[in-house]
Write a structure and sequence with these properties.
Layout (H helix, E strand, L loop, with lengths): L1 H16 L7 H11 L12 H17 L11 E18 L2 E2 L4 E4 L4 E5 L5 E6 L2 H9 L5 E6 L7 H9 L2 E2 L2 H11 L5 E5 L10 E21 L4 E11 L4 E6 L2 E4 L2 H19 L5 E8 L7 H8 L6 E7 L12 E4 L7 H8 L6 E4 L14 H5 L4 E5 L21 H14 L1 H5 L13
Parallel strand pairs: 5-6, 6-8, 10-13, 10-14, 14-17, 15-16
Antiparallel strand pairs: 1-2, 1-7, 1-9, 3-8, 4-9, 9-13, 11-12, 15-17
Helix pairs in contact: 2-7, 3-7, 7-11
Protein name: Peptidase family M28
GO molecular function, one term: metalloexopeptidase activity
Organism: Chitinophaga terrae (ex Kim and Jung 2007)
């Protein structure tokens, strides 16, 4: 009797996995290796590397037979933003020029600082939490913060949120720059070699209004019976670009973060294009997640949130979760019945979705699902990252060799099968409570 039960369970598991067998590990490995290759140069927005990545993803969407989004002539969903960009920087220590990373914080267009111990607050910081606390504090003096080189991986996000703020118009940018004159400013410098307190230094920075073009990569399959109801599969394809070199390596390849998720979106586009979904399905690779979330924000503004039934945002699935193989977690699990629907569709298989084990990290509002989630869409991120232990996160060592492509393939298969009833229109996740957070 026990043998019969075991055989029944094995048959159920096989029946669940079989429809997704087109998702092969060899193809997963090809996609993630291409996206995380050195010639993509870390996929930072506005660089040739991210343009190359966008072209590659567009070609894959074309091969899948997707159509551009309504109103778009290609798979590139382009938009522009204004930002305060650096024109030139001069930095000296003890009268000698240094080619160190210097990041002005705030919206001032000009900095002309010459060291005087009475005029500046000097801090040495080695910890991200300590830095964020310092940046949130107001000060009655200008501040120079020396950063430990180990923090270089966080600079991209700091630039986006605290330095190169993005504006909808040049007038709004100029207003912000004018208001900045009323307060004190902060400059971060990566301390490539120790600088003793009391050492003379000079910083001269000129900045001006600039325009940057961004591009999401998006395509869709029109639904057969419910074309005006949308299911979104997403990931971000941007990363940190070029960082200060570590052991001769300066490219932040972003293999797990988030070439792994982008690979999943491409594979799912090919999987579902072989079917005839009842609801329309959108596949999108977002830009600028690492530098402010501008890609997902723009994408979300083009949609009526009431027509978006669910969003599967896939973020860092390159390694085993803390729950082991055949598992992943869902952020905001308790906010809708999205997770239980997915798990029900996997009944009989070994794969299991868990609630987010890192609630203190607030991951639900830190990824590209956040904008639509705030509008009430059951928009969740699926991930496996052990964010409290990952030694490669936001470093030049986040490379393909650190990934478990067999596990990635298993997760993509599970997402494909678990999404089936939502794609078919037989399940509709409950809405999330709207938020102004």
């Amino acid at each position: 009797m026990k043998k019969a039960v075991w055989l029944l369970g094995a048959a159920l598991s096989l029946s669940l996995v079989t429809p997704a067998q087109e998702i092969k590990e060899k193809e997963v490995r090809r996609l993630v290796s291409t996206l995380a290759a050195d010639d993509m140069e870390g996929r930072y927005p506005g660089t040739p590397g991210i343009e190359k990545a966008a072209s590659f993803i567009s070609d894959e969407f074309k091969q899948a037979g997707l159509s551009p989004l309504p109103g778009e002539s290609s798979f590139l969903q382009k938009f522009n933003k204004y930002y305060i960009g650096v024109d030139n920087i001069s930095f000296k220590v003890n009268g000698k020029k240094k080619n160190w990373v210097v990041v002005p914080i705030g919206n001032s267009l000009r900095y002309d600082w010459v060291y005087n111990e009475d005029d500046y607050i000097i801090l040495h910081i080695k910890d991200k939490t300590e830095l964020l606390k310092a940046l949130r504090r107001t000060s009655d003096k200008n501040r120079l913060i020396w950063l430990d080189p180990s923090m270089a991986g966080y600079l991209s996000g700091l630039v986006a949120y605290y330095s190169e703020g993005v504006y909808e118009s040049e007038d709004a940018l100029n207003t912000a720059a004018e208001n900045a004159k009323k307060g004190k400013q902060t400059v971060l410098v990566v301390e490539q070699s120790p600088v003793a307190d009391g050492t003379p230094w000079e910083i001269h920075i000129n900045r001006s209004a600039k325009t940057k073009e961004y591009a999401n990569v998006a395509g869709m399959i029109k639904g057969k019976s419910k074309p005006d109801e949308y299911v979104v599969f997403s990931a971000h394809y941007d990363h940190l670009g070029i960082l200060p070199a570590v052991a001769g390596d300066s490219i932040a390849n972003g293999a797990d973060d988030d070439a792994s998720g982008t690979t999943a979106v491409i594979m799912l586009s090919k999987y579902f294009s072989q079917q005839q979904p009842e609801r329309s399905v959108i596949f999108v690779a977002f830009t600028a997640e690492e530098s402010g979330g501008y890609g997902s924000r723009y994408f979300s503004e083009q949609l009526d949130p009431d027509k978006v039934v669910a969003m599967f945002n896939i973020e860092m699935i390159g390694k085993e979760s803390k729950f082991g193989k055949n598992s992943a977690f869902i952020t905001g699990f308790e906010r809708s019945d999205f997770g239980p629907i997915l798990q029900r569709n996997l009944q009989g298989s070994e794969f299991k979705f868990y609630p987010d084990p890192y609630p203190e990290q607030d991951l639900f509002y830190r990824s590209d699902n956040a904008t639509l989630a705030k509008k009430g869409v059951p928009a969740h991120s699926i991930s496996t990252t052990q964010i409290d232990k990952d030694q490669f996160y936001h470093t030049v060592d986040d490379e393909t060799e650190t990934l478990d492509t067999e596990n990635i393939t298993s997760i993509i298969n599970a997402i494909a099968v678990s999404a089936s009833s939502i794609i078919k229109g037989t399940d509709t996740p409950t809405r999330i409570e709207k938020s102004n957070q």
